[in-house]
Amino acid sequence: MKISTKGRYALRMLLDLAEHQNCGFVALKDIAKRQNISKKYLEQIIPIFNSSGILKTIRGSQGGYQLAKTPDKYTVGEILRLTEGSLAPISCAEEPTECERSGDCAMLPVWQGLYSVINEYLNGITLQDILDQHRQRYMNDYVI
């Protein structure tokens, strides 16, 4: 499994919104500038989150985007499934009945186990967890 640029940029965009959640609605151009991501690329990602209810949007000169819920309500797994589709390492790990060999496949339990570990791990990390870990790392990084 390889996470695409779309998935990585989507996570960075949502982390930026989480970090600036107390600033009201945030303009896409500001996120693009802070994250060094093309605004046009972010414009392609936004519809995914608008249609899923992850973002609140206001149009106009004072408009922008905001997370619909607090950062602790969004998992990395949820976000990546929206942007990447399935997180299964191979298709039969998620839908074994679609494979004609699934009934006699010695590797199927391995792929299903890997898929389970991936989901468990990514579903256990929230945007808030990432922010907290990032802040903690820099709080302890000081020079005298």
Structure at a glance:
By secondary structure, this protein is mainly alpha-helical. The protein is 55% helix and 6% strand. The chain is built from seven helices and two strands.
Overall description:
This protein has helices at residues 5-19, 28-35, 39-52, 76-84, 91-94, 108-123, 127-139; strands at 55-58, 64-67. 55% of the residues lie in helices and 6% in strands. It is built from 7 helices and 2 strands. With 144 residues, it is mainly alpha-helical. It has a two-stranded antiparallel sheet.
Mean pLDDT: 90
Low-confidence stretches: none
Succession of helices and strands: HHHEEHHHH
What Rg, in angstroms, do the CA atoms define? Answer: 18 Å
Key traits:
144 residues, mainly alpha, two-stranded antiparallel sheet, 7 helices, 55% helix, globular
List strands and helices in order, with pairings.
Blueprint: H1 5-19, H2 28-35, H3 39-52, E1 55-58, E2 64-67, H4 76-84, H5 91-94, H6 108-123, H7 127-139
Antiparallel strand pairs: 1-2
Helix pairs in contact: 1-2, 1-3, 1-4, 1-7
